[in-house]
Amino acid sequence: MLKSFDIYNQNNVLKIIVAVNLLLVGTGSLLFTNRIINKLEAREEQYMQLYASALKYVFQTADNEENINLIVDGILQANQNNAIPAIYVDEHNEPVQSKNIDLPTGLSAKETRLYLLEQKEKMRRNHYPIRVDLKDGNFGLIYYDNSLLLKQLNYFPFALIATLTALGVLAYLSFSSSRRAEQNRVWVGLAKETAHQLGTPLSSLMAWVDYMRTDPDHYEAEVTDEIEKDVNRLETITARFSSIGSVPTLKDENIDEVVTHFTDYLARRISTKVKMTVESNLPASLMVRINRLLFEWVIENICKNAVDAMAGVGELRIRLLPLPHDEVAIDITDTGKGMSKASMTKVFAPGYSTKKRGWGLGLTLAKRIVEDYHNGRLFVKSSEIGKGTTFRIVLHREPGPLPEIDEPRRKRPSLLKLRGPKVK
Question: Considering the chain, what is the average pLDDT of its residues?
């Protein structure tokens, strides 16, 4: 049997179609561009070979050096229209002619020579020079580089890949955002409909509690009180569901008192084989801005998951401590089966669950309540297989120095845990 499931497992055909289309467009464009670049390189090399052949012919047939220089200048000038940078050097490696090279202004003859020699070395790294055989065993060399158009085309594949990657990321973010928005609408609608459906039976249960109080001889007061507590608890849950999707009202609450009060209530409604302890290192008067109903829901979800992880037997420790930067931490540690690193990354995902029952939404809702409504953080602080897990809640408190601790408060068992057995 699968240990996890995803109730929001949607059809990913559209995402696959978009990804495949982007891949096909990118691959086709890159292949086509590469083909054009290769053809242009071959054509520019043919131009330079023609220049070399023309130079060879001119040097071997011209009558004097003046005519040679004039014709060489004319041949290289013809290259101006193709914008192929070229440098012609003699057999002594001295630059004779250069075309389509932007020389810095204000250079002396010596500086110009050095600059051309430097450019020649750069050209040599890109293309082999073309030899020009002259009269009497002399020779020259033509060095050349790619034209500006060809250089721009060489950068085009990188620009194309970056553009397609950006489009893919935007498409993925759009799909993910749309999916999250749909999930949020489903959750909000489900929560409000649940709150609405609970309204009628709650009214009926309250009426039955009032009826039981009218006949104390037949119905024990302690039983009636416990039933009323559970009815009040259902009203609290209804209020929580009603709050989903709305902006919650945050109030300054004594976080120590909130956690202690709720864990005292919770202790009598979980397994009697679970030892729950609370340790607070916070000043008794420390206030944190929270929505009490929703925050108690967070504590409840984490604690119930911890009890399930321990299979109803073990120790559940809750520790409150101050942090730097005006923050407060609440660590909830169990002695359960622990989690692998893979599970730690998925534990807050909607629908993830290792239990046969449940929808896998408890920790997801808890994380959203802490982070979206309280601007805090909820994460798995640590976990070890076979030893247990620690969840940490981080909240912001009012800035300023911490008040002094009135009295040391060490580990103590939850109060209601000592008062009697679990009420079934």
Answer: 78
